Amino acid sequence: MTGHKTPPHHAGPLVIQPLRRRQCAECRRGPLPLLVLEEGAPRCLDCADLGHLVFLPRGDTALTRRSREESGLSAVVVRFNRRQGRYERQGVLVEEAGLARAEERCLADAEARRRRRTRDARRRAEEDLRFTEAFAREIRRLLPGCPADRAEAIAAHASVRGSGRVGRSAAGRALSERAVISAVVAAVRHVDTSYDQLLMSGVARHEARRRIAGAVDARLREWATEAEAGVGPGAGAGPGPSLEAAAEAEAGAEAEAEVDTRDDAGAGAV
User: Which letter, b or e, does each residue of 225-247 get, where b requires 16 or more Cβ atoms within 10 Å of its Cβ?
Assistant: First the structure.
C-alpha cells in the first residue's frame, strides 16, 4: 500500500486516526478517536460536519467501493505508521443508508463474486508455480553446481507473492541475473554461514556481513565450479559471479523492490 509522510491529498474529506491524544480546536472535546485537520488544527467529526457518517474498516473491496458509490458524502480514514514512516489507509466513513444499500448489493451477487475469487486464486497459484519454477531454472543456469533442491527452496522463498522479497521486485520478475544472484546470496548467508548467530549475539548487520563474506563467496564459487569445468547447462559460461558482483546485485535489486500487494480497500495511493 502506498503511503505518505504527510496526510495525502485526496478527493473528498480525509480523516485521521491520531496516535496521540488530541482535542478538537473548536469544541475542545477529546481525546478524539478520529479527526479532520482544517488549516492545521484538529476538528472532531461533528465540528467537521462528518459526525453522521459510519466507519467501514478496510478488508472488503466490493463493499467499500459500493458503499462510497451509494453515499453522497464519504471520507477516507488514514493512520500514521511510525515503522514505515507514512500514512496508510484504514477504511472509509460512509453514510449509514449507503452502507445498507451496498450490503444488499453485495448479498445479491455474493456467490458470483465467491466463484470469481476462487478462479482468480487458482490462476494466481498457477502463475506463482510457473514463476517459481522459472526462477529455480535460472538459478541452476547461473550456478549449475547448486543442488536442485536448494535452487527450488531459494526460488520458493524469494518469489512469495506480496512478500516484498527480491523475487517479487521488478528485476526479480524479469529474472535478471543480479536479482537471481541476490536471492542466492541471501539464502546462503542465512543457511550456510554463522550470520544469524552473529546477529543474535549483537553484531551489527554490516559487520556480520563482512565477517561471513568469505564463506558466501566460497559457496558461490563452489556452485559455479560445474560451469567452469565445462560440465552441464552452464558450460562455457566462464567463472561464476564473484561476491562483489553478488553484493552489487543484491543492493540494486533491493533498491528496485516493488511490493505487489494491493490495499484491500482499493489499490494504489491512499
Answer: ebbbeeeeebeebeebbebeebb
